[in-house]
Amino acid sequence: MTDPTRRNVLRGAAALAAAGGLVGTGTGAAVAAPQAPTARHFPFLEGAFEPVTEELTAFDLPVTGRIPRELNGRYLRNGPNVLGLEDPRAHHWMLGDGMVHG
Question: Has this prediction a pTM greater than 0.70?
Fold first, then answer.
């Protein structure tokens, strides 16, 4: 067996590509029908995770229930924002520029 050098790997890949091209050239080769694009669901672009387009500052908001006395401070969420991307659907919720939501 030969050493897995870059040259040997590329040579093997080229041989596989050439063999793959020959397999589908027979007269009985089936051609796959074009597939319609499927609708994808992007939960990371909806609800609380929806991209924020404007900043809002609000005071004295109504509270249902009681806020615990021990809870004091600010709630900040750090995560990505897909605004500015050419195709937000290509975004992954674990990647992207950081944005602090407060």
Answer: no
